[in-house]
Amino acid sequence: MKMTKATEDDIKRVNLFFLMLEEVIEEETYTPPNDDGDGVTEPVDDERLAQLVRQFWGRTGPGVGPSWRRVVRGADMLIRNCCDPDARTLEWRPDLRSFLESAEAAKEKP
Question: Structural domain of residue 25, as residue ranges?
Fold first, then answer.
C-alpha cells in the first residue's frame, strides 16, 4: 500500500491542534502561540471553542484538514510494521534490529 507521507508541516499543524484542544479541555483557556513566547491567555467558552476548532481545522486558513490522517496512519503503519510488538517503547522489531546491526557492522569492516 502506498500513501502520502506526512510532511513536517502536517505534523506541526496536527500537534498545534491537539495542544490547543488539550489546553482548552484541561484549563478552559487558550494561549495563542507567538514569536516572543508570551501569548495572552484567554478564557474559552463553547462558542470560542467552536471558532478555534474551525480555525485550526482550516476553515478560516491553513490548518489540520486531512493531514491528520497522514500523521496518524503513517505512525500506525510504522509502529505495526517496524516496532517490536512486545516492547512498551519505540524499539525496532528484533529482525530489523539484527539486520540494521549487521549492516552497520559490515560498513565498519575495511
Answer: 8-108
Residue 11 neighbours by CB under 8 Å, 6+ apart: 71
User: Helix, strand, or coil here: 30?
Assistant: strand
Q: Which residue intervals of the chain are DSSP H helices?
A: 8-27, 46-57, 67-82, 94-108
| Residue with the three cell numbers 500500500 | 1
d(CA 44, CA 8): 29
Please check whether residue 15 lies inside any domain of the structure: yes
Q: Give the count of domains, the chain.
A: 1
Query: Is 47 within the bounds of a domain?
Result: yes
Is 91 among the domain residues? Answer: yes
Q: What are the tens digits of pLDDT across the range 48-84?
A: 999 999 888 886 667 888 888 999 999 999 999 999 9
How large is the angle between the packed helices 8-27 and 46-57, nearest 10 degrees?
Answer: 170
pLDDT, mean over the chain: 88
CA 85 to chain centre: 21
Residue 1 domain flag: no
